[in-house]
Request: fold
Amino acid sequence: MLTVSGLTVSRGERRLFRDLSFSVGSGEVLALTGANGAGKTSLLRTLAGFLRPDAGTVAFADIEISEARASHLHWLGHLDGLKGARRAREELTFQAQWFGADPDGIAAAVDVLALEPLLDLEVRRLSAGQRRRLALARLIASPRPLWLLDEPLSPLDARWRAALGVLLQAHVDKGGGVIAAVHDPLPIPARTLDIGAVR
Amino acid sequence: MKALMILWRRELALAWAGGGGPLLACGFFLCLTVLVPLASGSDPAALRPIAGGVAWVALAVSSILSLERLFERDFEDGTLDLLALGGPPLELTVIAKAKAQWLAVGWPLAITAPVAAITLGLPVSLAPLAALSALIGGLGFALTGALGASLALGSKRGGLLIAVVVLPLFIPPVVFGAGALERAANGQSPGPALAFLTAYVLFAAVITPLAGAAAIRNAQS
Reply:
């Protein structure tokens, strides 16, 4: 699904990692670990095409990277991209539709993430965990094969961490792939790549 | 295309969310045009030759007010990352946002423009021309403004930087727009000045999506 070869990334003067190679196939989960500042987020941003590597390539199976960005990737970063003044329903609908979801997909996401009681609230009234669930909805509503997740667990409580595990499992069972930067172990079996160790 | 319509509608809703930002721009525009006659002494005839110019300077400055909202907020809260990864290319996204800016801020300002022009002592018969030229110029302001807003992304003093980047780019529409009003006030046809104004808008419509998308990609890296 995704093959990374010889990847070297720097931020400013500091080299985060060099000559990093790995691949993520269909149905695989890769957990990126490493200390704060090791470069987990930078690696994810490089895979998503936001950062240009100093050297090396990121290749998607059979498709151009620009096309992959537009149709094969889901990105869940630290920032949820939600506007506080808007209602949860409006923001969920916008994000899902921006990624091409249909009403059935949105309804399914609302159902799976138990968002119904939150939908009429303004986003600013939601807690960090609730906002994260709202942001996760677009991943469920609009199926895309590769998920890039930056610390998806951090604001979630125990119940929803477990629920996210179920969602990730369902995604990989359907042949999807997941690359997640984590500090705590993911609630499903995952291959681990320690970014700090490859510097 | 559908996604762009959805984005465009959201942009309009956000422009009016939280207390009618476009109305504030109109109020600011009117305040500026009321200040000038008060500051320029008791002789209304002295103001008449520069009234068109003053109206257009006030319009240009009022158009800058809400530009910071255009990309900076989306950059700070992560929306811009999502916009870059959805289906539509970033270039079209920039155009959609600039068009929403025009509709949300440019149109209310264009509707206010006749009032401003009359306040400054232009004849009432020029009111339709004032509105029309402000409408065309407003699209130019929205497009070049979007370019300035994307170039200022990520800087600490975004709002001020946008104004300094954008005001020089606003010189041509101000010259052409004020020229249209002046020609009409002197009994000439405003056509040539409006044609130049439209040409500026078309030029901006070509440059802004390309340069704006490049500036956003640069800010995201």
